[in-house]
Amino acid sequence: MTLYLLDANVFIRADADYYPLDRIPGFWAWLHGMADAGKIKTPLEIYDEVAKSSDQLGQWLRQPDIRKAIILPEPTNPATVEQVISQGYAPDLNDIEFEAIGRDPFLVAAALHGPNRFVVTREVSKPSKQRQNRKVPDICDGFRVPWINDFELWRRLDFRI
Questions:
Q1: By C-alpha distance, which of 61, 1, 64 is closest to 37?
Q2: Where in the chain are the domains?
Q3: Which of 18, 35, 48, 97 would give a disulfide with 132, using CB separation of 3.0 to 4.6 Å?
Q4: pLDDT recorded at residue 92
Q5: Distance CA 78, CA 82 (A)
Q6: What per-residue confidence (pLDDT) applies to 26?
Q7: Low-confidence ranges of the chain (pLDDT < 50)
Q8: With 0-12 CB in 10 A as exposed, 13-18 as middle and 19+ as buried, what is 158?
Q9: How far apart are CA 120 and CA 108, in angstroms?
Q10: DSSP structural state of residue 133
Q11: Residues 44-84: pLDDT tens digits?
């Protein structure tokens, strides 16, 4: 089975732009169902990035049944995260650069942890960017991790209103 790993921006933009929790709850029920079925997940580090918010999205994510369904249940492999950082961004990032890349390396590392995994992100490829400015799709390409955007995911998993 294919596993889709969601970037923080997928949750954030869905709520802010397309499927507000208070206006289109059916989308969020569907997303929860896809997570329960094991089709979509997000690494704990990405989850924490979004769930810490005090807004309605953060509140939704912190519900125990949502949290349990959405978080990827496997532990993070620190060696793989380090590999993603050193080979994907740069081996000599300074503290400011390291902070700028955020938690994206955890997402790519999770995709490297097993077969048939796709990263789902709203970021757009910008291959000319360097070091901390590199985009998730370009990091994925460097590691041969398949990636798609959120609208492609909705099509693949047959989301309908």
A1: 1
A2: 3-156
A3: 97
A4: 96
A5: 6
A6: 97
A7: none
A8: exposed
A9: 10
A10: G
A11: 999 999 999 999 999 999 999 999 999 999 999 999 999 99
**DSSP character string of 87-111:** III-TT--HHHHHHHTTHHHHHHHH
Max Cα distance, the chain (Å): 47
Tokens for 130, please give them: 């360097």
- Tokens 């969601």 sit at which residue? 6
Which residue do the tokens 């993070």 mark?
76
pLDDT of 71: 98
What pLDDT score does 22 carry? 95
- The Cα 2–Cα 40 span in angstroms is 9
Token pair belonging to 147: 């990636």
* Half-sphere exposure in the Cβ direction for 67 (13 Å, CA): 12
Written as six digits, the tokens of 40 are 């979509």
Q: How many residues does the chain have?
A: 161
User: Looking at residue 114, what is its pLDDT?
Assistant: 85
